[in-house]
Design goal:
GO terms for molecular function: DNA binding. The chain is mainly alpha-helical. Helix content is about 65%, strand content about 0%.
C-alpha cells in the first residue's frame, strides 16, 4: 500500500466527516477514554494524524482500532492494510444519499472491485446487496466478526472472511483479542428474535442429500474434537470445508425449509470452528466464530442451537475472568428456550450458571443450579439429541459440576464428581476430558494439604494428556494446580512435578 494511497484515503475520510486534524485527534482520544476509563488517555495529536495521512508513520494497533471506529471504516478501506479474502472495499462518497453529508473536498473514488476478486460466498452475497456499507452495522474493530448483523448476507460474508483468514493463518485474526463489550448485543438480539419468531411449520424433506452429507462431515469433525482433542489442523479443516462447501450453498436461492436447514448446519460448523479456537487459546478468533454462529442459528429458527451457542459464549466469558457475563449469557440461553423440550442444552446451561456463580463466591446459588442441572440431566437420552449436543453426557456434566464444586471450595464433592468424569471419559477414549477432570482430583488433594496425593494425581493428569493437542482449558487447569503446589515446592515430589509442568504442559510451544 503506497503512502500516496494512504494519504488520499485517510484525508478523504476525515474531510467527508467534516473533521479537521485536531478534531479527529480529539475524537480518537475521547473514544479511547470512553472505552476504557481506567487506561491512559490516548496521546493522539494533530501532528500524529498528519503523519498518518502523509504516510510518515503507521497507527499502533490500539490507535488503528480507535481510528477505524471513529471513521466507521475498516483498515483496508482506510488504505492501512490489503483487503482480506472476500472483503469488499466501499467508501461513503460512493454511496451518498440525501441523508448523508457531502464531503468538503471532491472525492477521488477508488477503483471498484470486480466480482472475480471475491470469494464464491462473498461474490453471490454481494449480488444480493450484502456488501460492507457504512451504517449502524459497521464493524468498530479491525478484525470482523463481533457484530451480530440483521442481514444474513452480511453474516455470510463475515463468516467467510473469518474462515478464510483462519485457514491462511492471517496474523491480524490470530492476534485478535476477546472483547467483553461485544457480547451484550448478540445475546440480546438473539433472545428478542427467538421470542418474536413465528414457527412456519412444514416438515423438512428427508431426502436432502446435501444436508445429510454436511451433517456426516460435521460428525467426523466433532469426533476429531471430542475424541482426538481437536487442534489447529482440525480447526482449519473445518474452516476450509465451511467456506468452500457450506456457505456458498446459503447464498443461492433455496426453498425456505432447505435454507433453514442449510443455516442450521452452517451454524453448527461455525460453532465447532469457534469451539476449537477457544480450546486452542485463540479467544478472539473463537468469539468471532461464536457470534456469527449465533446469527446463523437465528436464521435456522433452531432455538436449541442458539442456546447452545450462548452456552459456549458463557463458558468462554467465565474462563476468561468474566463470570458475571458468563452468568448473564447462560441465563439468556435458558430464557430463549422457553418451554422447549431441550434437556441436554438446559443441563449444560445450568452447569455453566453454577460454575459462574461458584467463581463469584455465590456458593448456595451455585448448589441450587447444580441441583437443576442434575434433574434435567436425568431426562437426557443422548441417542435422541442432535449430533452437536451428544458431548453433553455423563463425563462432561460430572466434570463441569466438579469444576463448580472445586471453585466453591468443596474438595470432597468435587473429587467424587471428578472421579465419575475421569472413569467415563477414559472408557470413551476422551483423553482431554479425562485430563481436565483429573486435575480437579489433584486440586482436591491440594486443598486438603495432602501433597503426596496431589502430586500423584497431577502426574496422572499429565500422563493422560500426553498425545492430545494442547488445550487452553487444560493449560488453565494445570496452571492453577501448579500455583497451588508452589507453596510446597521445597518437598522433592512437589518440586519435581512443578518442573514437569513447566517443562511440558506450559512450555511456550504448547501454549
Amino acid at each position: 500500500m503506497t503512502a500516496h494511497t494512504r494519504a488520499d484515503l485517510l484525508t478523504q475520510y476525515r474531510t467527508w466527516y467534516q473533521l479537521t486534524q485536531p478534531e479527529l485527534a480529539e475524537k480518537i482520544a475521547e473514544r479511547g477514554q470512553r472505552e476504557d476509563p481506567n487506561s491512559t488517555r490516548p496521546a493522539v495529536t494533530a501532528s500524529l494524524v498528519s503523519r498518518w495521512e502523509r504516510g510518515a508513520s503507521q497507527p499502533s494497533p490500539r490507535y488503528l482500532r480507535l481510528l477505524c471506529a471513529v471513521l466507521q471504516a475498516t483498515p483496508a478501506e482506510l488504505g492501512l492494510r490489503p483487503p482480506m479474502p472476500g472483503e469488499r472495499i466501499t467508501h461513503p462518497w460512493n454511496q451518498s444519499s440525501p441523508d448523508q453529508p457531502k464531503p468538503i473536498t471532491p472525492a477521488r473514488p477508488s477503483q471498484p472491485r470486480t466480482s472475480e476478486d471475491l470469494s464464491p460466498t462473498a461474490r453471490i452475497a454481494a449480488r444480493s446487496g450484502a456488501s460492507h456499507g457504512i451504517g449502524h452495522e459497521r464493524e468498530p474493530w479491525d478484525v470482523p466478526g463481533l457484530v451480530y448483523r440483521s442481514s444474513l448476507g452480511h453474516t455470510l460474508v463475515t463468516v467467510d472472511e473469518i474462515g478464510r483468514a483462519d485457514v491462511r493463518r492471517r496474523d491480524l485474526l490470530l492476534r485478535s483479542s476477546f472483547v467483553l463489550g461485544a457480547l451484550a448485543g448478540p445475546s440480546r438480539d438473539w433472545l428478542l428474535a427467538s421470542l418474536e419468531a413465528v414457527d412456519a411449520g412444514g416438515p423438512r424433506r428427508a431426502d436432502m442429500d446435501t444436508i445429510s452429507s454436511i451433517r456426516t462431515m460435521f460428525g467426523v469433525f466433532q469426533e476429531m474434537d471430542v475424541i482426538q482433542g481437536g487442534g489447529e489442523v482440525a480447526r482449519r479443516t473445518v474452516a476450509q470445508y465451511l467456506t468452500d462447501h457450506v456457505l456458498p450453498l446459503l447464498t443461492e436461492s433455496q426453498p425456505s425449509h432447505v435454507r433453514k436447514a442449510l443455516a442450521e448446519v452452517a451454524a453448527e460448523q461455525t460453532y465447532l470452528a469457534g469451539w476449537m479456537a477457544f480450546d486452542a487459546g485463540q479467544q478472539g478468533v473463537a468469539q468471532r466464530y461464536l457470534i456469527q454462529s449465533l446469527r446463523l442459528a437465528e436464521t435456522s429458527g433452531n432455538r436449541m442451537l442458539g442456546a447452545h451457542v450462548l452456552a459456549g459464549l458463557a463458558d468462554q466469558a467465565t474462563m476468561l475472568g468474566h463470570p458475571d457475563e458468563g452468568l448473564r449469557l447462560a441465563r439468556t440461553g435458558r430464557h430463549g428456550l422457553g418451554n422447549l423440550n431441550a434437556p441436554a442444552v438446559l443441563t449444560d446451561l445450568w452447569v455453566l450458571e453454577a460454575r459462574a456463580l461458584a467463581v463469584m463466591g455465590r456458593r448456595s446459588e451455585s448448589a441450587v443450579a447444580i441441583g437443576h442441572a442434575e434433574r434435567k440431566f436425568d431426562l437426557v437420552d443422548v441417542a435422541d439429541e442432535p449430533e452437536w449436543a451428544r458431548f453433553i453426557d455423563e463425563p462432561y456434566i460430572a466434570g463441569e459440576i466438579a469444576n463448580s464444586l472445586r471453585d466453591a471450595g468443596d474438595p470432597a464433592e468435587a473429587q467424587r464428581y471428578a472421579h465419575r468424569s475421569v472413569e467415563g471419559a477414559r472408557r470413551q477414549n476422551r483423553s482431554r476430558r479425562a485430563a481436565l477432570s483429573q486435575t480437579v482430583i489433584a486440586v482436591g488433594h491440594a486443598q486438603r494439604n495432602d501433597i503426596e496425593a496431589a502430586v500423584a494425581a497431577t502426574h496422572t493428569a499429565m500422563d493422560i494428556a500426553m498425545g492430545v493437542p494442547i488445550s487452553a482449558r487444560y493449560a488453565t487447569a494445570i496452571t492453577d494446580l501448579r500455583d497451588r503446589l508452589i507453596p510446597h515446592q521445597r518437598e522433592a515430589a512437589a518440586h519435581d512435578v512443578i518442573a514437569r509442568i513447566n517443562r511440558t504442559a506450559l512450555a511456550p510451544a504448547n501454549i
